Amino acid sequence: VVYTQSEILQREVYLFERLDSPNREPMKHLKAICFLRPTKENVELLVQELRRPKYSVYFIYFSNVISKSDVKALAEADEQEVVAEVQEFYGDYIAVNPHVFSLNILGCCRGRSWDPAQLARTTQGLTALLLSLKKCPMIRYQLSSEPAKRLAECVKQVITKEYELFDFRRTEVPPLLLILDRSDDAITPLLNQWTYQAMVHELLGINNNRIDLSRVPGISKDLREVVLSAENDEFYANNMYLNFAEIGTNIKNLMEDFQRRKPKEQQKLESIADMKAFVENYPQFKKMSGTVSKHVTVVGELSRLVAERNLLEVSEVEQELACQSDHSSALQ
């Protein structure tokens, strides 16, 4: 989610593998950079890897705090002394946008109390976030919520235990970690969303900034899965929080801009200078063409679903229920 493959290629990383994929070929001429969550399974996979190393040198980065016993297990497995360094590089969460992160957890509670595994994962994700932002916060939680209290206590325990890691320079106003319980908001889940990112998430589903469009009628092969990331999609970055009506207008402008550029790109190439200009502009043109077809497809599918599910009418009723105290007309 953080890096595109082409960005990583520019850093001279040419091979992408998973530790758990079988039948990897030994390539002793390559160095390996391992970026892993410090889970039991990952440490075990790494131990097996170090016993029979496939690469010349290993640089190991864990996305969160790793226990001394796990480091010891890795040291014992590294008989051939291929490990160059082991570091903690806090990134144990999915950075969806500059202002939003996720832990990709679906359903963290059983009834009104935490699922223990999900509580542990949420604590790890939150503390990694605090470490990467260099914040040692005041913690406040919703008093009426037992799950919020439990999470606050778990985060506090980690900060107390790893106090050396959280020893950041104090600010005049300490940062605040505010933990709220989603179940106290009875209104928002009943309302349809009408901004671009929220509609895509609600109607099509976004998973790690990818959208599965394979069910869209008549979809072309290239567009079965598309990436929506504000990092490298200017149109999406500018429109993600705009209303659906505005998106329609902006898509039209994008199309018109694309059409204006198109004939220029396809003019006759009579001189070397023409060819040079065409080659220089072609990647931009190709990128813009991809952006246009992607957003036209996504917005087209959103409007199909809005019509199919009568969402304009439904949404009007929802808003009346949420905003007015007299519900007799809504019942009608």
UniProtKB/TrEMBL annotation:
Keyword Nucleotide-binding: no
Claim: S-adenosyl-L-methionine is one of the keywords in the record: no
Key words, A-Z: Membrane, Protein transport, Transport
Subcellular location: Endomembrane system
Bilayer topology: Peripheral membrane protein
Pfam families listed in its UniProt record: Sec1 (PF00995)
GO BP: protein transport; vesicle-mediated transport
Gene Ontology CC: one annotated term: cytoplasmic vesicle
Family: Belongs to the STXBP/unc-18/SEC1 family.
PANTHER family the record matches: VESICLE PROTEIN SORTING-ASSOCIATED
Protein name: Vacuolar protein sorting-associated protein 45
Native organism: Neopipo cinnamomea
